Amino acid sequence: MTALAGTVRDLSVEELVALTMKTGEIAVTTMALLDKANTTAYGNPEITRVNIGVRKNPGILVSGHDLRDLEDILEQTKGTGVDVYTHSEMLPAHYYPRFKTYDNFVGNYGGSWWHQDKEFESFNGPILMTTNCITPVKDSCKARLFTTGAAGYPGCRTSPIALRGRAVARIFPR
Known about the structure:
Number of helices: 6
Order of helices and strands: HHEHEEHEHEEH
Radius of gyration: 19 Å
Oligomer: single chain
Shape: globular
Structural class: alpha/beta
Distance between the termini: 49 Å
Strand content: 5-15%
Number of strands: 6
């Protein structure tokens, strides 16, 4: 907040550099905390081969950064015959040992986040956006695109509190 407030005041070069350094320090501390949380929960990342094809089973595509939402989807789909794929920013989840224990965590679909419009349209299943890296959603995808947390988009459904317990039943009703 101090750095943001500093943008509306006349500051010397030295003061601006000091604010920039403080901002960087906070960012590094934040990333260290995030790394500790992720490695404590999911293990230390390992070099991993990731399948980039799709299988014949029904599948869910998960994009964004929220590993807990991914874990919830994997738990809910375990043993159901539903495959789970990552997209874009979620690709690094494949490197964590904990996620390798799920037989239905089968690969990555698509590439960069800015290709969502084409890749989401061509994916034959529901899509879960776990963070706000969402580009304008085509009307043809809105009925099968779900959001969690801070993510959201007009015309798309928001899943309750990070999917805890009911999302798969809503996405794949029996």
